[in-house]
Design brief:
Blueprint lengths: L1 H15 L7 E4 L2 E5 L9 E7 L1 E5 L3 E6 L11 E4 L10 E4 L1 E2 L5 E2 L2 E8 L1
Amino acid sequence: MPRLAAVVATVLVASAAGFTINDKVYVDGQLFAESSGLDANQMCHEHKGTHSFKVCGCGVKLVAHMMTECQTYKHYDTQIGKCDCSTKACDEVELEAGYTNKFNWKAASFEISAC
């Protein structure tokens, strides 16, 4: 039993050290989740379709998917968020594809996770 208590204590300390007040996720120009609110949002989210994402802070990242249910599809899966604590800059992305004629593609789902 003491060993189980040690494991639980380790997990609690690890999760408490998770997201900071600098960690924020914006979807379609609107704040989606931030700080401790990110804990409950570490999952796949369906969306009506947007090409605009911004991630601030070094503890969180987002992967935008063209397909629903966060399914992967060729090169239409894009990570937003650098996971680099040496910079304070936010990572703002307009989803774009094409070689000669660029076009914006819309994500139907996105997944939030810790770095």
